[in-house]
Amino acid sequence: MTSIVSPALAVRRAGTVEYLTAWDEQRRLHAGVVEGSEPNTVLLLEHPSVYTAGKLTEPWERPFDGTPVVDVDRGGKITWHGPGQLVGYPILRLPVQRGGLADVVAHVRRTEQMLIDVCAELGVATTRIKGNNRSGVWVREDDRGPDRKVAAIGIRVARNVSLHGFALNCDPDMTRFANIVPCGITDASVTSLTAELGRDVTVAEVLPLIERHLPTLLTTLTPPFRNS
């Protein structure tokens, strides 16, 4: 199902899609946005269980039991995708800076802000954390545990158009993260909306909230800091 959430943005609810199939569709849309034959588009979907590794992944961060991994061309490190996790792939023409190049950091910050606003609407307080490997959206350390990531972000930009995107943990099988060093982070953990709220928060519940906040990706946002 495709809908228009703003005059400048089309959104497609794609259901459950194999990772490599979705990657092919991203590349098709990317070529269309670059050429001007496709509008800015966000794919919203779930994947069957799969580990994917960004360009910075170290060998020791990969699955401890030898489970196969899909190596991809996005930034970041290794993560898991699967049922109960809402994945968004914004294929967007980005504003350019002086010199004609897109501001990738600003795009990451807009994506974080959109997810922070969605989590707040559900009653989960989240934030950014400054530091290496800390891009994404976080619940801060409290009496329940250390800093924990509820949404991961991994971006690639080619010809000033973005690919890949974000993954928000709604009600996935969190044990899947125990088989890797997620995002290369050893001093924090991962969490889900379900774990934080103590009730089942499904992808179906979160989808309309994400759609309502997606125009944030097209706004001009001054990043609170420059380091990911």
Please write out the topology.
Blueprint: E1 2-6, E2 9-16, H1 19-35, E3 41-46, E4 50-53, E5 70-71, E6 78-81, E7 85-91, H2 104-122, E8 137-139, E9 148-158, E10 161-169, E11 189-190, H3 193-197, H4 203-213
Parallel strand pairs: 2-3, 4-5, 9-11
Antiparallel strand pairs: 1-2, 3-7, 4-6, 7-10, 8-9, 9-10
Binding site for substrate: 74-81, 152-154, 165-167
Active site: 183 (acyl-thioester intermediate)
GO molecular function: lipoyl(octanoyl) transferase activity
Any overview of this molecule?
With 228 residues, this protein is of the alpha/beta class. 23% of the residues lie in helices and 27% in strands. It contains 4 helices and 11 strands, in the order E-E-H-E-E-E-E-E-H-E-E-E-E-H-H. Strands 1, 2, 3, 7, 8, 9, 10 and 11 form an 8-stranded mixed sheet that branches. Helix 2 packs across helix 4 (203-213). It starts with a strand and ends in a 15-residue tail after the last helix.
Continuous helix count: 4
Average pLDDT rating: 88
The dominant shape is: globular
Quick one: how many beta strands? 11
Radius of gyration: 16 Å
Biggest beta-sheet profile: 8 strands, mixed
Query: How far apart, in Å, are the first and last alpha carbons?
Result: 34 Å
Strand content: 25-35%
Which consecutive residue ranges, at least 5 long each, have pLDDT under 50? 221-228
Helix percent reads 10-25%
* Alpha-beta classification: alpha/beta
Order of helices and strands: EEHEEEEEHEEEEHH
